[in-house]
Amino acid sequence: MFNQRSTTIFAWALLAPAILYIGVIVAYPLVDTGILSFTDASLKRTTNWVGWFNYAKIFNETFAAVIVRTFVWTFFSVLLKMIVGTGGAVLLNAAIPGRALFRILTMPPWIVPMAIGIFMWGWMYNGQFGMISGELQNFGITSGPVAFLAYGSSAFWATIVTDVWIGVPLVTLYLLAAMQAIPEDLYEAAWTDGAGRLYRFRRITLPLLVPSIITISMISLISTFNSFDIIWILTKGGPSGSTTTMIIDTYRTAIGSYKYGEGAARAVLICLFLSGFCYLYFKVTSRIGAEQAR
Asked: Tell me, what CATH number does 254's domain have?
């Protein structure tokens, strides 16, 4: 009895730092934000309980457009990261001369501080001095300067391209590691049977990469959905709100307009969306694991 109790106490003592960390750093801010979302907290001295008013207020036509824009921005960004990252992993996994050098060259977008990389892209998108606009004019594609960040549609896609550039190295390296874990015997057997490169990729590589693809897709989705730096530095949500996502709108409401209660309600909504993504991820991975165990 004494030994069992001592073991239990020792186990809780080991768990205490993690529990304290989760409670102070994660649980308390979440609970406090949830409570704040039911108030009219702002810069004024008094704070009143308003119930569901903040939630009813954000579900208007304007915020509905922000939600749709966020999902579209996230979808295309994650999709392009997965396509480019998978292609890059396949190329880096191939037996080609200088493979080690190419692997090193994939790292700069990930190593360079994010703000510096985003400022670099901002200069590249500049209509008067930017490299992209200059090259388009040199090749005769455009007759004059193109200010990519001055128009809604081009600014929207420009922020996606920048996010893809930053996120592709992580996807590439993660999938490259997964590819290298695939047994070579499978490829040798397929090659002996006369299977070509495309067939081997479609029948061996891709099916065995599905769990890794789902995992890195979810990681990329969460980081992209919460992406703030890229859009804020490049466009600050403009022009005319064409690049305003939920995280940008939340910042503008809570910090820019000092409407802390309304901002907290938006933050809770973002948390609910991300919790839904995580739930879907665990359901899919558990189903894949059950199928593989059969």
From this structure: 1.10.3720.10
Task: Round to whole Å and give the CA distance between 209 and 90.
Answer: 11
pLDDT tens-digit profile, the chain (294 residues): 556 777 888 888 888 888 888 888 888 888 999 999 999 888 887 888 988 888 888 877 678 889 999 999 999 999 999 999 998 888 888 777 767 777 777 777 778 888 899 999 999 998 888 889 888 888 888 888 888 999 889 999 999 999 999 999 989 989 998 998 888 888 888 888 787 888 888 888 888 888 889 889 998 999 999 899 999 999 999 888 899 999 999 999 998 889 999 999 999 999 999 999 888 888 887 887 777 666
DSSP for 229-272 reads: HHHHHHTTT-STTTT--HHHHHHIIIIIS--HHHHHHHHHHHHH
Within 10 A of 57 (CB to CB), how many other CB atoms are there?
14
Contact 170, 90 (CB under 8 A): no
Its domain, for residue 131, covers: 57-293
Q: What letter would DSSP give residue 106?
A: T
Domain count, the chain: 1
- Calculate helix-pair angle for 114-125, 152-180, nearest 10 degrees: 140
Tokens of 141: 């594609």
pTM of the model: 0.87
Using only C-alpha atoms, what is the Rg of the chain?
Answer: 24
CB hemisphere CA count around 115 (13 angstroms): 0
What is the SS3 assignment for 40?
Answer: coil
Examine residue 21 and state whether it is found in any structural domain, yes or no.
Answer: no
Structural domain contains residue 15: no
